[in-house]
Amino acid sequence: MTHVDLLFIVAAHNRRMLTTAAAQAALSSAHSAGKSAYVVVFDDGSTDGTGEALAALSNVTVVAGDGTSFWARGMAAAEEAALSLFDSFHYLVWLNDDVDLDADFVERALEAAPEDPGVLICSTRDPISHEATYGGLKRAGAHPLSFDLIEPTASNQKAQAMNGNLVFVSTTARARIGAIDGRFSHGFADIDYGVRCSRSQVKLEVAPGTFGACARNPVRTYDNRLDAWRVFVSERGGGHLSSLARMLRKLRPRTWVLWLAATYVRWWQRHALPQSTYPST
Q1: Strand partners for 212
Q2: What does pTM read for this prediction?
Q3: Would you state the torsion angle of the CA atoms of residues 98, 181, 200, 124, taken in this order, to the nearest 10 degrees?
Q4: What CA–CA distance (Å, rounded) separates 121 from 47?
Q5: Which of 157, 172, 156, 102 is nearest to 130 (CA)?
Q6: What is the pLDDT of residues 107-144, one digit of tens each?
Q7: Tens digits of per-residue pLDDT, 57-66?
Q8: Is residue 245 classed as helix, strand or coil in its secondary structure?
Q9: In terms of residue numbers, what domain contains 233?
Q10: 65 and 156 part of one domain
Q11: Does 169 lie in the same domain as 124?
């Protein structure tokens, strides 16, 4: 039986330096903690040499995509490939390649990991302000997809959903919750997984402190509402029709159509006033 303590999965596209640095940092931190580790990267059609650079590293496998998978599908493909390589593992670790990992993140995460079956969310911080940027989420407001970031404290906290930047999924939790839903295009797969934890009575907890630097994605602005709308409903946007509908059906199976309509109405209301630029979110 092929076993590894930590099985990292990454979705990547044209960020060669970031992706290789993240893979090396993950392996190095695991080694320092005395744990075996392996990294599986889904390289979604990179043209900057990402795949070739990763292939030169030890304990790294690259799965090639054609550039159309984006994050959710890419992570699902990386997970499937990783589980085909190893019969057992202690933790399946989700990792975004833009996280500048702390050297001791593995040791600290394992110390904070909840009892099995459990999923541990490791928060990230802004590299300049050091404020928390991604991590565990709690419900905030009437809309099913309205969440606030949970500020990490000195002890574990329960979460209701999560960002998928750095997450430790135990073997038992993975068996109970199942695979990452690759039928989303880009976003929502991490929100979905966190919600499924709660529904499966799997502990979903935010670890104390932060585990690496990762700036928030900048909100891009456009000169007119139509361009901003096109980005919002694109495959990478929060308003992508099939992904949004799929998420809302899971959260509100009886009223999802109303919430879908409300999401689009709210977007247009927020962008109704004349202004010089329009955010895509």
Answers
A1: 101
A2: 0.95
A3: 10
A4: 31
A5: 102
A6: 999 999 998 889 999 999 999 999 999 999 999 989 99
A7: 999 999 999 9
A8: helix
A9: 221-279
A10: yes
A11: yes
